[in-house]
């Protein structure tokens, strides 16, 4: 009978690898580098080697493994097909089958943001609820939708792509995705800095941001909390669009809770409260009381979610 | 053994009542008036009387009925609770239990737009697909989300409220829902007329719309098809926002197909193609090829969907 599960979160720099008991306990955790050379063709063999090493180390065989869950930075279908992971150099192929052939272990895959959502739903900020939308605000803005305990994949593997909702009217610059006016362009860590630089250039308002050596999202939130008028203007602008994004998510799936994660969420209650203010202003009245909470698992969320994919509901 | 199913679509003026075989065949169809006097307290007793009449007429008893599905113009929860139907004068109560007590037959309820979506999914425009988002463009803009053959209710019964996505920046007037900037304010039949009247007032552009005795959404689309520049400007503006709304829906649930229904959808291919043009412009690339099709069941969709709620997957 199988005893363990692997939860692997494949990122652009490292793969976070968790070994879990079938009861869901994290037994060990390591990171291996994501080797993107040769069109990303080394990544799955590296993961396979890692898993074989862990099994040897634990005196186990593939028979002891219930499955491998894997989160990937791209659109994933429920059948295991990945629809391009640009960051990894991958095209379209069945990544679940490929890793399964290398390891002899059943594999399921999901989009990394969906896996983070599933992890938070399982043991993190969403664990007391039945449905949730997670928004991960870091370098980009990712999202994941959980309904009745299951991640929503979407027909093209693109459900929960909240960062690319077309919310910003009149945007002239292009998003990484090629469109103009995506939420991510103002609300990601880089988007927040871009917004601040724009506002600094457009006004003569005195601001502590003018004298800091390096403007980051963290600095902007710190200065806003400290009362700097221009930094406050930036955070209000950013959170107004995030509130709109959450209102759109509520209008479509009406979850029980929103969970906010990613590096920018370290800005804490000030950030959450500001999003909530604008959310309440523009959401449909029936969803007005929906809670917005902070994520709890940090960078481990995706690894937990990938394992949960194997554990099932 | 039960032989028939009732599908009732409760509207503000009439209730459309369908009697279906367990195989899903529509056996008979009638409308009864929706009596809104006395706080809407006559509506369920009227439906109960109607059902008893049909059973007597068909020489059947309640034993012959598998269930009653009922679509209602308000937020509905899966447990049968209706969270206000302002049009009917209803507050918060379990409408499914109430009708079940009156009839002695099991009852399930759903929001009318969700039921229309389920009907179209079952035997209409969405019948070849596994997931869909329906948008009903009439007096208002309603929506319904179907995932894996099931309507998505949402925690507050508000999933699929696409008409109240906050998409229109800088809107100064209020929507019926109390907010400002809802998609419905520009894209419902009344919103389209309002948009035309604004554009007529703001410019001196000659337009056939200036001389028609009565401007309706139909007239505007007819004139646009005929080449009137201002009417074209109105339809482009309206469809740009509808395209954005669909792009937001795709970003959250990524359905296999969009089905467009309601009175305004009579504008046909011109309308669908224009929505599609703007959809493609602002949707996340993975969902770019998602089909947009016209609804097929007209005003019967809600009745079919209500019956399907009883038939199950």
UniProtKB/TrEMBL annotation, chains A, B:
SUPFAM superfamilies: Actin-like ATPase domain. InterPro entries: ATPase_NBD, ROK, ROK_cs, ROK_glcA. One of its GO terms (molecular function) is ATP binding. GO terms for cellular component: cytoplasm. GO terms for biological process: glycolytic process. It comes from the Bacteria. Its EC number is 2.7.1.2. Keywords: ATP-binding, Kinase, Nucleotide-binding, Transferase. It is an enzyme of class 2 (transferase). PANTHER family: BIFUNCTIONAL UDP-N-ACETYLGLUCOSAMINE 2-EPIMERASE_N-ACETYLMANNOSAMINE KINASE, ROK (REPRESSOR, ORF, KINASE) FAMILY. Belongs to the ROK (NagC/XylR) family. This is Glucokinase. The lineage of its organism: Bacteria, Bacillati, Bacillota, Clostridia, Lachnospirales.
């Amino acid at each position: 009978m199988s005893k363990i599960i692997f939860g692997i979160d494949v990122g652009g720099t490292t793969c976070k690898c968790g070994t879990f008991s079938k009861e869901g306990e994290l037994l060990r955790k390591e990171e291996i580098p994501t080797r993107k050379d040769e069109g990303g063709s080394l990544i799955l063999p590296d993961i396979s080697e890692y898993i074989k090493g862990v099994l040897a180390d634990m005196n186990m065989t593939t028979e002891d493994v219930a499955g491998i869950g894997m989160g990937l930075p791209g659109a994933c279908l429920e059948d295991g097909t990945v629809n391009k992971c640009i960051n990894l150099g991958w095209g379209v192929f069945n990544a679940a089958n490929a890793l399964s052939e290398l390891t002899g272990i059943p594999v399921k895959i999901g989009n990394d943001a969906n896996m983070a959502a599933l992890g938070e739903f399982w043991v993190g900020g969403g664990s007391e609820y039945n449905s949730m939308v997670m928004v991960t605000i870091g370098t980009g803005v990712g999202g994941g939708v959980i309904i009745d305990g299951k991640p929503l994949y979407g027909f093209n593997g693109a459900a929960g792509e909240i960062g690319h909702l077309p919310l910003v009217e009149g945007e002239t610059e292009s998003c990484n995705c090629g469109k103009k006016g995506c939420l991510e362009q103002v609300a990601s860590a880089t988007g927040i800095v871009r917004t601040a630089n724009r506002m600094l250039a457009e006004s003569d308002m005195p601001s502590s941001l003018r004298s800091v050596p390096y403007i980051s999202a963290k600095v902007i939130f710190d200065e806003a909390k400290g009362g700097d008028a221009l930094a406050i203007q930036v955070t209000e602008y950013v959170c107004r669009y995030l509130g709109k994004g959450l209102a759109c998510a509520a209008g479509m799936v009406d979850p029980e809770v929103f969970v906010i994660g990613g590096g920018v969420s370290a800005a804490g209650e000030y950030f959450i409260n500001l999003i909530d203010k604008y959310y309440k202003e523009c959401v449909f009245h029936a969803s007005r009381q929906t809670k917005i909470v902070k994520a709890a698992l940090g960078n481990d969320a995706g690894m937990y979610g990938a394992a949960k994919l194997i554990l099932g509901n």
